[in-house]
Write a structure and sequence with these properties.
about 25% strand; about 270 residues; Rossmann fold; globular; alpha/beta; binds 8-iodo-guanine; 5-stranded mixed beta barrel; single chain
Length: about 270
């Protein structure tokens, strides 16, 4: 079976379990984004119409990261039916790239035309204190891998939608943009690697998103990427990094992120 056929199977199961024939917008929640997404299913914003375990769908594997929920929610939000992935499979889990991008392909097979990829990451600018959201303008994929196999040459010139970034800045003019650099992980960078990321044009360092964005473009989805800076990248502040800090920064920023998502989604 091709990855696309596997995604079709997952999308068929999704439709059956949620009772929703077609979804419109997919949202992948990264570190620190889970409580923010709760806002989407509060009164006046949207309503959760179904919640299933990720592992109920063929091809999905259980989540390995603390602070990530292995649930998929179907949320009615204005005119849109939202498909929210509470977790993702990371490249560093070693389950292969097809597993990393399977949710993206499933979203496309489920009818989505747009995907919002969120993550928690390290920031390279000192003005980006923990809890600052940054729009992804472009990326550098230091996994040096591709989710696409074969002679299929996909253009990535405007991978991160200009239209959706402009929309986000209309909603919140204080939003900055940056270039996201994906390292393979799961270790954080050394200070020298962070300095390298800066010199090659990076602003944000993380362990996800780029492979998913590429698969999304291949599948014809419009991509919005939003990073939540949960820590200053190694060597920028002189403090060591830890995952608890990441989860705490997300918790503290949840209200702002939730408000942002709730205002963006209806206008997508
Ligand atoms: I949250 O500083 C989070 N994820 N590579 N570096 C990398 N990934 C991260 C970081 C970080 N913070």
């Amino acid at each position: 079976m091709t990855p696309q056929e596997q995604a079709r199977e997952a999308a068929d199961t999704l439709a059956r379990l949620t009772g929703v024939e077609k979804h419109d917008v997919a949202l992948v929640l990264g570190s620190g984004w889970r409580s923010a997404a709760e806002t989407l299913s509060t009164e006046g914003v949207g309503e959760t119409t179904a919640e299933i375990d990720t592992t109920d769908l063929p091809g999905f594997v259980a989540t390995a990261v603390a602070g990530h929920s292995g649930k998929i929610r179907s949320i009615r939000c204005g005119d849109w039916q939202l498909l929210v992935f509470g977790s993702r499979t990371h490249y560093y889990e070693g389950r292969g790239i097809a597993a990393v991008v399977h949710p993206v392909r499933t979203a496309a097979a489920a009818g989505c035309r747009t995907i919002v990829l969120t993550n928690g990451c390290g920031g390279l600018r000192e003005s980006w204190t923990p809890g600052t959201p940054v729009l992804i303008r472009d990326h550098i994929n230091l996994t040096a891998r591709s989710p696409i196999e074969g002679a299929h040459f996909v253009d990535l010139t405007d991978l991160y939608s200009v239209r959706l970034r402009a929309l986000c800045r209309e909603i919140d003019p204080s939003l900055d943009e940056g270039v996201y650099v994906q390292f393979p992980g799961p270790h954080y960078e050394t200070p020298a690697e962070v300095e390298m990321a800066r010199r090659i044009g990076g602003d944000l360092v993380g362990m996800s998103t780029t492979l998913e964005a590429i698969a999304a473009r291949e599948a014809g989805l419009e991509v919005l990427g939003i990073s939540l800076v949960t820590n200053l990248a190694a060597g920028i502040s002189g403090e060591p990094l830890d995952h608890a800090e990441v989860i705490e920064a997300g918790r503290a920023a949840a209200a702002r992120m939730g408000d942002l998502l709730a205002r963006i989604v209806p206008r997508i």
